[in-house]
Structures are given as C-alpha cells and as structure tokens.
Amino acid sequence: MSPTVLGGLLGAVFGAGLLLVVRRLPFLRKPTVDDRIGPYLRDLAGADVFLGVTDSGSPFHAMLRMFGPSLRAGAVRLERILGGAASIRRRLARAGIDRSVEEFRIEQVLWGTAGFGGGLLVSLIALSFGAGNPVGLLVFCALLAVLGVLSRDTYLTGQVRKRERRLLAELPTVAELLALSVAAGEGPAAALDRVARSCRGELADELQRVLAETRAGSSLVRALDGLADRTGLVALSRFADGLAVALERGTPLADVLRAQAGDIREASRRELIESGARREVAMMVPVVFLVLPVTIAFAFYPGAVGIRLIAG
C-alpha cells in the first residue's frame, strides 16, 4: 500500500472518530423523551430483548447500549428515505413476526452495516495489493450497503411466502379435523380449541390467537375476520368467511368445512399441475442451449475432421 493511500485511510478513521466524539458531547446532544424516561422503564421489552441480549454484563450488551441510539436514528432516517411502513407492517403480520416497523428498520441498518463492512474489508485487501481505485472501492462499499438493506426486505418477502405455503398445506387437514369435531357434537369454539391444542403448525397458532381474542371479549365472527385480514390468503379468507357465515346463519358447519377442504385440495392439485407444466418449459432451456449443441458437435466433428484429412 502506498503512503498516500495509507495516510488517507488513517485520516478518514481519525476524522470519523473525532466526529463521533464531537456528536456525543453533552452540550451538543439534547436528550429526548425516551432518554429521560428510559431508566424508569427498564422492565419493558425494548431493543435489547429484540436483539436477543439478556446478559447485562456481556460485552455485546455494552456495545448495544453504546450504539443503540445510533441504530434507532439510522432506522428513522431509513424510514424517511424508503417509507412503506404500512406494507412492512402488513408483511410482518403475514409472516407471523411479532416485531414493529422500527425493529425491522434496525435489522435493515444492521444488514446494511454488515454489507458495508464486508465491502470495506475487500477494499482494504485490494488496496494492499495495489489494485483498484479508492473512489471506485468506496462506491463498491456503498452499493454493498444498499444491497444489504434491500436483501433484508427481500428476505422478509421470502418469509411471507414460506409461511403462506405452510398455511395452505395445513389448511385442508385442519378443516377436516374441525368437521369431525363439529360432527361429533362439539360447538364451534370447542372444536377450534380442540384442533388448536391437537395440531402443531402455523395455522394452529393462528387458531390459538383467534381463541385468545374470543376469551378477551371479542366475538368469534370478528376474530375469524381478523384471521382473514392478517393472513391475506384467498383460501384462508374463504375458510374464515365460511365459518363466520355458518355461525351467523346457522348453516350446517360440518358440511361447509368438508366442502372447503375438498376445494382447497383441488386448488392445490391444480397448482401442482401448473407448476409441473412451467417446469417442463423451463427444462427446455438447458436442453436447447446446452445438450443439443453438444450433441450436434459430437455428431459433426468426426465428419469435419475426416473431410479435413481428405482435403489435406
């Protein structure tokens, strides 16, 4: 590494440290309401619990206490830049993640910081070997930071899709179990309680949440409507609406549940057939662009070699 580059890096590190020190001076930092009342609310769950830090004597806890305000400030700035708090709140609910938008933004800040740190490490290694432009490497680090922020959002979307697939896979079995319980003479609430206690999975957890809302004073129909709004799945919304309509109008609940289970299984079968057809089309790509050229090359190469030998 050249002395100029080394001096620039040392100057940048010194300037960043000096800036952090100046920004944390007491007369330049006005305490917020959270800072004033935070010491009196230590028993409440906060960012420490969110990040899984429970040992107050650990070094990581001290680092979290040091950089916690900076993380929250970065989350606020990121929210102002990106926006979409309603969409994130809805996707967090659909993914079954009990976190706030601020906590999700803090995760995005951490992912972006990790991307920037990885890019900075690669840049330092490249500069030590005399390769790369410092400005270009700085842009590379910034791109990795942006990629880290966007990757957390993409990962949340993947979590939503995985949970929706699990809910759809569990729904026919749960509907048939509910039909059996209702046909055996149990009421709707008792059947939901039995199925929620007997099953394990995402849908069983949602049913337990529905029962908790009914025990808290909400009606079963309203709790089922809340289930349909949280999940956002058409099949599960139809299932919850069918239960609500059967409870309101007195429709035979067992027949409704059996019909819905059959419809869901038929929809899953159609989706599987469509997925197989799409994969058949996707398999044509390696066949046409890889296998077929190699086959043609093996077929014509001996002839081409023979013609060349005869002509020579």
TrEMBL record:
Keywords from the UniProt entry: Cell membrane, Membrane, Transmembrane, Transmembrane helix
Single GO cellular component term: plasma membrane
Pfam families per record: T2SSF (PF00482)
Localisation: Cell membrane
Residues in the signal sequence: none
Keyword Transmembrane helix: yes
Record bears the keyword Transmembrane: yes
Major subcellular location class: membrane
Domain Type II secretion system protein GspF: from-to ranges: 176-298
Transmembrane segments: 6-22, 109-129, 135-156, 281-301
Membrane topology: Multi-pass membrane protein
PANTHER family, sorted: INTEGRAL MEMBRANE PROTEIN-RELATED (PTHR35007), PILUS ASSEMBLE PROTEIN (PTHR35007:SF2)
Name of this chain's protein: Type II secretion system protein
